[in-house]
């Protein structure tokens, strides 16, 4: 039976959109754009981001392109849930944005699913790979669950090819496979690289 528009509108919404790729691919710009479109449509939109090491400050509220969107910093899934559920009690929330899901604890995945099941549109971003080009946690599990997945590419900072890898550089050299994720003195940086220019020393 073909549903008419009225019956369709009575049904609840709810789905997950994942915006993924390497660093410098414009994930945050795309995230902000999508949230803004819902805000223009008078939907209640709320956004969260993880509180992370200051070295990642380039990826906070301001994206690389400088568009601003107020988003609430949280330390964990529990804290995000507390703040969001309080907001939901206050008023209906239609759209939830969560930036950088790879930096959350693993409970975020089940909560994202729960929100979508409750009729909320959840738009998330996350790196698909770490500096070793291995799948990043949370993003690897959201990928099969999301209704929509967009994988964005960057431009290789060495040769101009399409880049889908994040090159980590420590003290001016490509990072070693075994280098710790967090450096105490923090002298590391990142570049978008293509498959030909990406370098990793396997120890
Ligand atoms: Zn290249």
From TrEMBL:
Keyword field contains Cytoplasm: yes
Residues at which Zn(2+) binds: 156, 159, 194, 197
Binding, ATP: 21-28, 99-102
Keyword Kinase: yes
Localisation per UniProt entry: Cytoplasm
InterPro entries, per the entry: P-loop_NTPase, Thymidine_kinase, Thymidine_kinase_CS
Catalytic-site annotation from UniProt: 100
GO process terms (BP): DNA biosynthetic process; thymidine metabolic process
Any one GO MF annotation of this record: thymidine kinase activity
Top class in the EC scheme: transferase
Main subcellular location of this protein, as a coarse class: cytoplasm
Keywords: ATP-binding, Cytoplasm, DNA synthesis, Kinase, Metal-binding, Nucleotide-binding, Transferase, Zinc
Domain of life: Bacteria
Annotated substrate binding sites: 190
GO cellular component: cytosol
Short name of any one Pfam family annotated for the protein: TK
Chemical reaction(s) catalysed: thymidine + ATP = dTMP + ADP + H(+)
Subunit text: Homotetramer.
NCBIfam families in UniProt: PRK04296.1-1
PANTHER family: THYMIDINE KINASE, THYMIDINE KINASE, CYTOSOLIC
Family: Belongs to the thymidine kinase family.
Protein name, as recorded: Thymidine kinase
């Amino acid at each position: 039976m073909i549903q008419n528009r009225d019956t369709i509108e009575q049904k609840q919404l709810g789905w997950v959109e994942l915006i993924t790729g390497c660093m410098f691919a414009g994930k945050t710009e795309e995230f902000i754009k999508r949230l803004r479109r819902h805000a223009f449509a008078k939907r209640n939109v709320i956004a969260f981001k993880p509180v992370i090491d200051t070295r990642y400050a380039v990826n906070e509220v301001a994206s690389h392109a400088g568009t601003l969107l107020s988003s609430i910093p949280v330390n964990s899934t529990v804290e995000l849930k507390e703040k969001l559920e309080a907001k939901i009690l206050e008023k209906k929330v239609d759209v939830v944005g969560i930036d950088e899901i790879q930096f959350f604890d693993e409970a975020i995945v089940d909560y994202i699913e729960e929100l979508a099941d409750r009729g909320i549109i959840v738009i998330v971003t996350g790196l698909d790979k770490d500096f070793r080009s291995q799948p990043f946690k949370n993003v690897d599990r959201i990928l099969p669950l999301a209704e929509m997945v967009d994988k964005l590419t960057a431009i290789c900072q060495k040769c101009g090819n399409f880049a889908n890898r994040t090159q980590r550089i420590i003290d001016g050299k490509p990072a070693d496979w075994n280098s710790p994720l967090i450096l105490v003195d923090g002298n590391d940086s990142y570049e978008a690289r293509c498959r030909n220019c990406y370098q990793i020393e396997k120890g």
